[in-house]
């Protein structure tokens, strides 16, 4: 254990950490190292796991990508997805990664670079009609046009939206910089060669979200043959889109990118399709829009539920004498008193909140809430948006029983759809965002497919035992310590003889996890800058022996600095 991890400053840890940086990007310097230390401990076990992700779909380091030439990496607001590693490009239908073939080289289908094509007679990469090779022979440009770094005259830069001719060379305009190799690889379909100064593949910010929109929407023309579209309220990619034609793949705060119904549509009661909005007084079959409405099964017309009457705008139903946002009120008559107050004779949002936008209401059609925290945004995952998300999504769970798009263990999930395993929960886990992992009292099986009941030392077992360095004795079928290890004082783990765990009696050098603990006052305690892990944190990473966390570590923290719950 000590040799694998050591302290954050040892060569052993740095080797693991730097290796993973190539694969996942940095999700905040403090939080990401924890994630790396935990997740890489699982990779040896993951050989039999089949839930690898397709290109441009959400992925997990544990499960990886279907295509061996793709990597599971962070890509701005897409979070962690599979895309082709350097030296490869996605095929025209985005199903496989093909080796890069440049101008003048033999080809079968795809050539790299802007405005290139595979000549179907000579089977050699050439420029499209009207285009000629750039100076570096990697791209094709309109005659007389220049790319980044090439010689130019006024107006001759091919990408005039992002480049200008300065000092006789095409350079990025003010506020932008040349894209890095990694950034170009992440979005191989776009011709853009510059990025906003603050843009980063490792962060989802307003800047990166706007970049993402520019890049991904450029790919939609190619996406007709792609079948990996996402179901409602599941993680999606703008490239693959949504199964339902009336849904959109859009960012929704801490949910990242998910499919939800576009304006004018609402999710069906089982959350499988988007149905056209039907309001009070209109003909209906099953669902009506608005709060406390129902489809009268005799008249097949949208009416208010018993005890409710139509609001002034006829869009919702409220308890008699109650008022909604913007309606006339008197003290105590605002229906949503948790977020609204009667001020100047009208229901208004309380201090610190503002009226929700149309887009925000559309994103959470199940909730009655009409106000949002002032700083809330659908485009950002912040402490504010995470708390909003919790309020909204948990409101839907009662409706979600018939939904089949549940996620496998350690895969991206939605609180609405939940997890395949009934003993798993869809919860936030730091840089992994929302994934399915086993609830308290359960541990993942050795192949990470199911959650098994925790079995401790001395108890009967079939395969797996909880705790560090434990095993199921195949003769007695009882949980025992591995050879050379003895039970810890609390009988939950096994340690090398003479070694102690967190909180146990120790002497100098006897703490088993010396990379994170030290003997202080006769007890093993977390070293400076670390604190004991909570039960929830230990449950989130059951494979690791680590018992301490960095002081500012949080399971619900993202790159934007959430610290809540």
Question: In a nutshell, what does this entry contain?
Answer:
With 565 residues, the chain is an alpha+beta fold. The chain has 8 helices and 36 strands. The chain starts with a helix and ends in a 15-residue tail after the last strand.
Question: Helices, strands, pairings?
Answer:
Layout: H1 2-5, H2 11-24, H3 31-39, E1 70-74, E2 80-84, E3 88-90, E4 97-99, E5 116-118, E6 125-127, E7 131-133, E8 140-142, E9 163-166, E10 169-172, E11 176-178, H4 181-186, E12 194-196, H5 206-216, E13 247-251, E14 257-261, E15 265-267, E16 274-276, E17 293-295, E18 302-304, E19 308-310, E20 317-319, E21 340-343, E22 346-349, E23 353-355, H6 358-363, E24 371-373, H7 383-393, E25 424-428, E26 434-438, E27 442-444, E28 451-453, E29 470-472, E30 479-481, E31 485-487, E32 494-496, E33 517-520, E34 523-526, E35 530-532, H8 535-540, E36 548-550
Antiparallel strand pairs: 1-2, 3-4, 5-6, 7-8, 9-10, 11-12, 13-14, 15-16, 17-18, 19-20, 21-22, 23-24, 25-26, 27-28, 29-30, 31-32, 33-34, 35-36
How far apart the termini lie comes to: 31 Å
Provide the gyration radius in Å. 28 Å
Q: Considering DSSP H and I runs of 4 or more, what fraction of the residues is helical?
A: 10-25%
Strand order of the largest sheet: 1-2
Could you name the ranges where pLDDT drops below 50 across 5 or more consecutive residues?
Answer: 1-50, 209-227, 386-404, 557-565
Number of helices: 8
Q: Judging from the principal axes of the Cα atoms, what is the shape?
A: globular
Major sheet summary line: 2 strands, antiparallel
Write down the overall mean pLDDT.
Answer: 77
The oligomeric status of these chains comes to single chain
Q: How many β-strand runs?
A: 36
């Amino acid at each position: 254990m000590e040799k694998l991890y050591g302290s954050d400053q040892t060569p052993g840890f740095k080797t693991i950490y730097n290796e993973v940086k190539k694969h996942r990007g940095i999700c905040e310097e403090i939080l990401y190292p924890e994630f790396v230390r935990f997740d890489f401990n699982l990779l040896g076990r993951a050989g039999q796991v089949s839930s690898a992700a397709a290109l441009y779909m959400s992925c997990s380091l544990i499960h990886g990508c279907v295509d061996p030439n793709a990597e599971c990496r962070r890509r701005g607001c897409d979070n962690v997805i599979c895309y082709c590693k350097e030296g490869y490009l996605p095929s025209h239908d985005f199903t496989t990664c093909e080796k890069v073939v440049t101008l003048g080289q033999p080809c079968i289908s795809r050539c790299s670079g802007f405005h290139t094509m595979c000549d179907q007679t000579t089977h050699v990469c050439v420029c499209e009609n009207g285009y000629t090779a750039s100076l570096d022979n990697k791209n094709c440009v309109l005659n007389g046009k220049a790319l980044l770094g090439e010689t130019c005259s006024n107006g001759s830069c091919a990408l005039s939206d992002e480049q200008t001719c300065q000092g006789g060379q095409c350079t990025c305009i003010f506020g932008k910089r040349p894209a890095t190799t990694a950034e170009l690889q992440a979005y191989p379909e776009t011709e853009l060669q510059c990025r906003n100064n603050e843009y980063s593949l490792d962060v989802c910010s307003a800047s990166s979200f706007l970049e993402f929109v520019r890049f991904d929407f450029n790919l939609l023309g190619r996406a007709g043959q792609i079948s990996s579209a996402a179901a409602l309220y599941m993680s999606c990619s703008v490239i693959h889109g949504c199964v339902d034609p009336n849904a959109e793949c859009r960012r929704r705060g801490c949910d990242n990118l998910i499919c939800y119904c576009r304006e004018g549509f609402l999710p069906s009661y089982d959350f499988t399709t988007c149905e056209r909005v039907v309001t009070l007084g209109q003909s209906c079959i099953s669902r009506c829009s608005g709060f406390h409405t129902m489809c009268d099964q005799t008249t097949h017309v949208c009416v208010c539920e018993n005890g409710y009457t139509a609001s002034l705008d006829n869009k919702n139903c409220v308890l008699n004498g109650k008022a909604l946002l913007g309606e006339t009120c008197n003290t105590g008559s605002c229906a949503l008193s948790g977020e609204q107050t009667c001020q100047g004779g009208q229901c208004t949002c309380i201090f610190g909140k503002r009226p929700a936008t149309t887009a925000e209401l559309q994103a959470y059609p199940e909730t009655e809430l009409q106000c949002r925290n002032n700083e809330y945004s659908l485009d950002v995952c912040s402490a504010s948006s995470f708390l909003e998300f919790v309020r909204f999504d948990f409101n839907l769970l009662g409706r979600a029983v018939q939904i089949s798009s549940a996620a496998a263990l350690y895969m991206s999930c939605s609180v609405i759809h939940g997890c395949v395993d009934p003993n798993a929960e869809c919860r936030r886990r730091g840089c992994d965002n929302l994934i399915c992992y086993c609830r308290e009292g359960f541990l993942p099986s050795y192949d990470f497919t199911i959650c098994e009941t925790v079995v401790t030392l001395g108890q009967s077992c079939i395969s797996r035992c909880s705790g560090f360095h434990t095993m199921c004795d195949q003769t007695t079928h009882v949980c025992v310590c591995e050879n050379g290890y003895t039970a810890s004082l609390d009988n939950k783990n096994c340690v090398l003889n003479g070694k102690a765990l967190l909180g146990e009696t120790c002497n100098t050098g006897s703490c088993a996890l010396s990379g994170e603990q030290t003997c202080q006052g006769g007890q093993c305690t977390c070293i400076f800058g670390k604190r004991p892990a909570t039960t929830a944190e230990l449950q989130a990473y059951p494979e690791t022996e680590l018992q301490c966390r960095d002081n500012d570590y949080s399971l619900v923290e993202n790159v934007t600095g959430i610290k809540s719950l």
